[in-house]
Design goal:
Blueprint lengths: L3 E3 L2 H10 L3 H5 L3 H21 L5 H29 L1 E3 L6 H23 L2 E5 L14 E5 L2 H4 L7 E6 L2 E12 L4 E5 L2 E4 L2 E2 L13 H4 L6 E5 L4 E5 L9 H4 L2 E2 L5 E8 L12
Antiparallel strand pairs: 1-2, 3-4, 4-13, 5-6, 5-13, 6-11, 7-8, 7-10, 8-9, 11-12
Helix pairs in contact: 1-4, 3-4
Length: about 270
C-alpha cells in the first residue's frame, strides 16, 4: 500500500552522496535512479579504458569528470525533492532498503570497482631506498594492469610483494631480466659482462675494502631465472633488495610506478617516474 509523504531535499542530497541514484529513489523516481547509477558505472569503465589515468593531468581530468558527475546527480536529487515536495511512496521507499543499498555499495561495489575496474593505485614512499628518484613522503600512482600486456623492462620501477613477507609491498627498479647474467663489482652492475649506465643511482657510503666484500658493493655472477627479475634500489647503500633476498617472480608484480601526485617539494608534483 502506498501513501503520500513529504520529501526532505537535504536527505535526497545526502543519499545521492552515499550512492549515486539513491536520492532519486528516495524521490520515487526509480527509472531515473537506475539511469544515474548505471551511468556512473559506465562512465567509470570508459574512463578506465581511455588511458587517461596513465599520466598526472589525465588523472586530474578523470577525477574532475567523476566529481562533476556526482555533483550533477546530487543536484538533480536535491532540486527534484524541492520540486516534488510530496510523493507517493513505494515499497522500495523504506529505510532498510536504503541501508542495504548503501552497505552493498560500500562493501561490494566500491571494492570491486577499485580492484578490478580502476587501473591505478596510490602508494606512499615510507623510506629512502629509491632516492633520489623517489623521496620519503612522495605519494605516487602505480598502474596495476601495466604488466597484464607488457613485459618488464630494465629501468622500470615496480611494486611487488616482498618474497620473504608478502604482506609488505616494496618499490624497486628492475635491473636484471630473465636469463641474464648479472654481476656487481664495486657498486658497478654488469649484465652479460657489459657495464650498464645507471645515472639514477646514488652512492653515499665511502668505498672501503670491507664494503667491497659486502652485498652492498659486490655480488658474484648469477643468472636470473626464467620468469624472474633482479631488482635494486637507486639508493644502493640503503636499500633492502635482490642482493639480500633474491629474485622477484614476474607473476607477483603489482604494477609499474607512473608519476608523483603529491610531495613535500611541490615542484615534484606531477613528475613522471623514470
Amino acid at each position: 500500500m502506498s501513501n503520500l509523504q513529504k520529501r526532505v531535499p537535504i536527505i535526497a542530497l545526502l543519499l545521492s552522496l552515499l550512492t549515486p541514484g539513491l536520492g532519486q529513489m528516495y524521490n520515487g523516481q526509480l527509472k531515473r535512479a537506475t539511469v544515474f547509477y548505471l551511468g556512473g558505472l559506465l562512465l567509470t569503465i570508459l574512463l578506465s579504458l581511455s588511458g587517461l589515468f596513465s599520466n598526472f593531468y589525465g588523472t586530474i581530468l578523470c577525477l574532475a569528470i567523476l566529481v562533476g558527475y556526482m555533483i550533477l546527480v546530487m543536484l538533480d536529487a536535491l532540486l527534484n525533492a524541492m520540486k516534488l515536495q510530496m510523493v507517493t511512496t513505494r515499497k522500495y521507499n523504506r529505510w532498510y532498503f536504503y541501508v542495504l543499498i548503501i552497505l552493498t555499495q560500500a562493501f561490494l561495489i566500491n571494492p570491486y570497482t577499485k580492484s578490478v575496474i580502476i587501473p591505478i593505485k596510490a602508494y606512499r614512499m615510507p623510506a629512502g631506498s629509491m632516492a633520489p628518484t623517489l623521496l620519503v613522503g612522495d605519494h605516487l600512482v602505480v598502474n596495476k594492469k601495466y604488466y597484464h600486456n607488457e613485459k618488464p623492462k630494465r629501468g622500470d620501477i615496480i611494486v611487488y610483494p616482498l618474497p620473504k613477507d608478502t604482506s609488505k609491498d616494496y618499490i624497486k627498479r628492475v635491473i636484471g631480466l630473465p636469463g641474464e647474467k648479472l654481476e656487481i663489482r664495486n657498486d658497478n652492475v654488469f649484465i652479460n659482462n657489459q657495464l650498464i649506465e645507471e645515472p639514477y643511482v646514488e652512492i653515499t657510503e665511502a668505498s672501503t675494502p670491507s664494503a667491497k666484500k659486502s652485498p652492498k658493493a659486490d655480488l658474484e655472477p648469477i643468472v636470473v631465472p626464467p620468469d624472474n627479475l633482479f631488482v635494486l634500489g637507486d639508493n644502493r647503500d640503503h636499500s633492502y633488495d635482490s642482493r639480500y633476498w633474491g629474485f622477484v617472480d614476474i607473476s607477483a608484480l603489482k604494477g609499474k610506478a607512473l608519476y608523483i601526485y603529491w610531495a613535500r617539494d611541490k615542484d615534484r608534483i606531477g613528475m613522471e617516474i623514470k
